[in-house]
């Protein structure tokens, strides 16, 4: 099993670690009203595990984006705000691959040694988050397994084996099913779970419901958001629910198939990352509605308020051509009726009809609706990109004869080329150029559903003809339950808090030394001012993971600054000397003062993107 790819790569616990810092970098405990930096607390397997790279260093700030709050009480059955919260997040690696994380955040008692060292009030609680981490987009099985782990931990009946033994068995033994061939069955204590993925000949695996997207936005707003994403605008989603930010972000990325989003993708920004909204290059980001953005420039940003079905932007988004727009809107409305189409009428009647339609829709929307919605958008691409293969020309820098394509479309539709602003912008996007490059890949071209759909349409066949007519029943792979040595039948393991994983002797000694240092300092100088962590010698007390997370934030910060400066440099007038400008001087300073070369490589990226955009 060691060489087999697994669904669950890591189980991680994040929250309040032995080194406490406020969000602004101040070390130590500063009262329950302060928010604190989340940290890695536990994980399985340990980072030295060879099968997968370690979890990304920014994981704690992503799974607890608002930070860690300290409370005087835990779960209160009469207070919904104290209930555990389950939500997914998606992280993007440097090569564009995604990491899928299922999270449950809850209030958990603070460890006694931390309470004693930092003189935190006794019986205090703090935010904690348990996570399953995977490169496979199996959202449902990740969530089901995590919820079962959580329920087992806090069930009065307890579990039959130590909790971390159950976790280690699941992470180490559940393989990733072969697409379209396997169904993996495994158990967590007495709960049976299954996992399977669709055949490669089908639409890409999307283990999410598209219902939240069509419930939050009416049809016109959905098409407006789709167009903005397709044209690679700066997209900022707002919601007071983390789950909604992730699901809508993932859903819209699947609806632009076969195009792939090529730019910054952060479905949930941590609170202190709000300045990233100023980045001048395309991005898709999600931000909790409670985070203040009044200090950020929103010019050109497409702000999508998922709570109020509202989209605002200072720049025009060119409309989809009338024929394709009419098709797209009509087909979506036919699919939604009688499910969630009533949200369109909420603009007229904000009374009970809208609420009722959403409640009843939840009973009827299913996986078939998800599939049909994705197929509608694929059919849209088949229409708007009709005949595109005839204009692929690898002798051209972009690999595509855009002018000839637009002229052909103009003749067919009897519309002047000048009226095709949306299509003109689309075929200049990085997403479209990336698609053309993938068309030259033999394996990618074999499973190109867009080409198959255009060919099937030309032959007068149903769109469903592009999918396999028969799919064999999957082979059942059953993962045997674990047998724990020394575990006695009938013996139950019960917990009042989420237990810590067994620490190595080295880890235990490090924890004790950190807390001893904190405890000694607080006794010797109880009124000494807190130390701000801002780099230099003071930053040396950061753990390797915290330094890596700080570096990730620094890299993004430098790149955002460089992109803005570079664009302003390009806009200088003909009479201005660029070498004596403020922009040039600041760029030079960023590069010269950066020993790691982030600024230099970032500036090269700016130039490369500019060259690419003007070819």
Automatic annotation (TrEMBL):
One GO process term, biological-process aspect: regulation of Rab protein signal transduction
Organism domain of life: Eukaryota
Signal sequence residues: none
Protein name: UDENN domain-containing protein
Region (Disordered): 525-547
InterPro entries: cDENN_dom, dDENN_dom, DENN_C, DENN_Domain_GEFs, Tripartite_DENN, uDENN_dom
Gene Ontology cellular component list: cytoplasmic vesicle
Residue span, UDENN domain: 22-447
């Amino acid at each position: 099993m060691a060489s087999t790819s697994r669904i669950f790569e890591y189980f991680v616990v994040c929250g309040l670690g032995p080194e406490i810092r406020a969000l602004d970098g101040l070390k130590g405990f500063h009262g329950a009203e302060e928010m604190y930096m989340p940290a890695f607390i536990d994980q399985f397997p340990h980072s030295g595990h060879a099968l997968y790279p370690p979890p990304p260093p920014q994981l704690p700030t992503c799974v607890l984006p608002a930070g860690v709050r300290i409370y005087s009480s835990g779960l209160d059955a009469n207070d919904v705000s104290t209930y555990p919260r389950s939500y997914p997040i998606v992280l993007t690696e440097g090569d564009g691959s995604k990491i899928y994380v299922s999270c449950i955040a809850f209030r958990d008692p603070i460890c006694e040694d931390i309470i004693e060292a930092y003189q935190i009030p006794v019986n205090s609680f703090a935010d904690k988050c348990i996570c399953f981490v995977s490169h496979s987009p199996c959202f449902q099985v990740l969530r089901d397994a995590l919820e079962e782990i959580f329920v087992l931990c806090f069930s009065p009946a307890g579990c039959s084996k130590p909790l971390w033994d159950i976790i280690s068995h699941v992470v180490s033994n559940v393989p990733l099913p072969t697409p379209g061939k396997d169904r993996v069955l495994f158990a967590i204590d007495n709960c049976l779970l299954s996992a399977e993925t669709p055949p490669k000949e089908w639409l890409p695996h999307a283990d999410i419901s598209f219902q939240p997207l069509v419930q939050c936005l009416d049809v016109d707003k959905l098409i407006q958001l789709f167009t903005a994403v397709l044209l690679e605008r700066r997209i900022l989603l707002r919601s007071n629910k983390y789950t909604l930010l992730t699901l809508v972000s993932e859903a819209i990325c699947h609806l632009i198939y076969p195009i792939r989003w090529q730019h910054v993708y952060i479905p949930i920004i941590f609170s202190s990352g709000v300045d990233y909204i100023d980045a001048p290059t395309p991005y898709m980001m999600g931000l909790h509605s409670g985070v203040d953005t009044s200090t950020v420039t929103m010019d050109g940003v497409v702000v999508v308020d998922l709570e109020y079905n509202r989209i605002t932007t200072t720049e025009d988004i060119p409309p989809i051509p009338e024929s394709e727009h009419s098709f797209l809107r009509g087909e979506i409305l036919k699919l939604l009726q009688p499910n969630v189409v009533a949200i369109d009428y909420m603009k007229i009647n904000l009374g009970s009809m809208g609420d009722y339609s959403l409640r009843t829709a939840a009973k009827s929307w299913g996986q078939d609706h998800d599939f049909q919605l994705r197929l509608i958008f694929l059919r849209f691409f088949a229409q708007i990109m009709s005949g595109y293969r005839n204009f692929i020309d690898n002798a051209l820098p972009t690999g595509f004869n855009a002018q000839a394509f637009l002229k052909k479309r103009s003749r067919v539709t009897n519309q002047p080329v000048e009226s095709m602003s949306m299509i003109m912008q689309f075929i200049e996007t990085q997403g479209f150029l990336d698609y053309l490059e993938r068309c030259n890949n033999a394996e990618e071209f074999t499973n190109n559903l867009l080409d198959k759909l255009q060919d099937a349409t030309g032959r007068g066949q149903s769109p469903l003809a592009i999918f396999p007519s028969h799919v064999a029943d999957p082979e059942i792979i059953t993962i045997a339950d674990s047998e724990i040595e020394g575990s006695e039948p009938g013996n139950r393991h019960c917990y009042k808090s989420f237990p810590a994983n067994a620490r190595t002797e080295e880890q235990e000694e490090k924890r004790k030394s950190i807390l001893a240092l904190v405890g000694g300092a607080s006794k010797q100088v109880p009124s000494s001012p807190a130390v701000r962590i801002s780099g230099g010698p003071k930053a040396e007390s950061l753990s390797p993971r915290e330094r890596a997370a700080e570096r990730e934030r620094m890299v993004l910060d430098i790149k955002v600054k460089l992109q803005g400066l570079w664009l302003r440099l390009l806009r200088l007038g003909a009479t201005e000397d660029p070498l004596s400008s403020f922009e040039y001087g600041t760029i030079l300073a960023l590069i010269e003062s950066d020993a790691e070369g982030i600024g230099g490589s970032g500036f090269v990226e700016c130039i490369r993107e500019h060259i690419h955009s003007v070819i």
